Amino acid sequence: MDRIRRTERLAVMTKILMDSPNRILTLGSFCEKFGSAKSSLSEDIDILRTIFAQYDLGTLETVTGAAGGVRYRPMITGEAAYNSVSEVARLLSQPGRILPGGFIYMADILAMPDVVEKMGNIIASQYYRQEPDFVLTMETKGIPIALMTAKALGIPTVIVRRDSKVYEGPAVNINYISGTGNRIETMSLSRRAVKEGQRTLIVDDFMRAGGTPRGMVDMMKEFSVSVAGICVLMSTAEPAKKRIDGVKSLLMLESIDDSTGSANIRPSNWLQSMRKATNS
Amino acid sequence: MDRIRRTERLAVMTKILMDSPNRILTLGSFCEKFGSAKSSLSEDIDILRTIFAQYDLGTLETVTGAAGGVRYRPMITGEAAYNSVSEVARLLSQPGRILPGGFIYMADILAMPDVVEKMGNIIASQYYRQEPDFVLTMETKGIPIALMTAKALGIPTVIVRRDSKVYEGPAVNINYISGTGNRIETMSLSRRAVKEGQRTLIVDDFMRAGGTPRGMVDMMKEFSVSVAGICVLMSTAEPAKKRIDGVKSLLMLESIDDSTGSANIRPSNWLQSMRKATNS
């Protein structure tokens, strides 16, 4: 009977942990749910930790102390991260995605839940230590990846708008220099969206010259929010000098072949070295 | 030994099934992963089905035939759905959310991954039978709920824009009558975003007069795409006559109390009756 109960508990705990990534769940809450002793549940956690590690399902950590418990993180690193990002590079390199002006049609890939969830998990894996309070993104295409990154980090998303909206209340508007055309654009964020002293992780889909992330960093200064990191799905090799430093990118757009209408896209160097580090 | 192996398999299978909602996973794929016999895995599935039902974790169905296998759906219905929606109603009814013009500040709630995932699962639960090919939404605030609905249904999201973008390629633009002001607005959808003959589920965050969902239905006519259903997180009691019929809503905004700055929001009638049906 106890064996069957354990089987049951482990399946249910897997579901519960996956539903609340990066949140500390107390052993007490599981005791209550299953009517089991803490000692049994501690053993359950140990077994789950081994299984998760063995099958590359993410990490399970025991957090000690008064607010202690167990915390699940859908970590994707090394070989698995490299392979997932390579697959997205392959999809985006398909012929026919190049649009006039050297733009790439990415909207379909950026709205596939399974793809953006994997990318979000990979991005989150890089920022658990920084403990951001929310993920900041700029509407529209980056929202799905930002949301999935926030889900993995167990924090909310905050969306910067292109202009003030009546349903966002009082807002701070700032001007920024748009990547390509050196045009002055406006971005707007509701006053009540964030709190002074918080830390943010900035996530976006695409960076060329870096004007948009730079604008988001400037916006955060207006709110006295510090920036724990900036990560984009794809950045371009050119221009090499961006308007902002320290941006991490999953994909690098090396060049565009106008004759075939396809792009040369590859996983960024840090993903390649992380992969080697895992294999060695 | 076999017992330990089963424990392991069930935890890993739970994770894999949750990662691919509404997709048929073959027994063969699990046999390969675990090196186990089909008969053991059939038993595993039976056990998991019982556990999932017992703990209200969603449904696990066996699909027979050549393309057969097992399919997980994160169904939330009845009492659990009612309670989740009530909690969102409570959050949105908090004083201080009312903005000039009778708008409600919802942006923070609409960007919380755990909240929108639950709402997405509830919306998806209503449309599995209709088998939509994609979820359609209009930028910006509805994107997180639409994405999570699409995730539960195992299908992509498609985002309608307010204007054509250089990175979306050739697009179809249509005019529609915006809910409140009787203003003519434009919406734009990339030509390559959807295919003729597909079926869509339209998901949005808020509906007052219904101009936006009506515009999305008209847009789908231009693409020869049929509409399997329309669902919004919240609709207003007034005006009672909307520009479009048959829209399902999770929440009903009954009235706004200007003196306290709070709104009277409750779960829609169909959620209440679904709850009663479960309890009776």
Could you describe the 3D structure shown?
Two copies of one chain form a homodimer. Chain A is of the alpha/beta class. The first copy, chain A, has two domains: 2-73, Winged helix-like DNA-binding domain superfamily/Winged helix DNA-binding domain (Arc Repressor Mutant, subunit A, Orthogonal Bundle), CATH 1.10.10.10; 78-279, Rossmann fold. Chain A contains eight helices and 13 strands. The first copy, chain A, has a six-stranded mixed β-sheet, with helices on both faces. In chain A, a hairpin with a 6-residue loop joins strand 8 and strand 9. In chain A, helix 1 (2-19) crosses helix 3 and helix 4 packs antiparallel against helix 8. At the A-B interface, helix 1, helix 3, strand 5, helix 5 and helix 6 of A face helix 1, helix 3, strand 5, helix 5 and helix 6 of B.
Number of domains of chain A: 2
Q: Give the chain pair forming the largest contact, with residue counts.
A: A-B, 57 and 57 residues
Query: Which ranges of chain A are low-confidence, i.e. pLDDT below 50, for 5 or more consecutive residues?
Result: none
What would the average pLDDT of chain A be, to the nearest integer? 93
Rg calculated over all Cα atoms of chain A: 21 Å
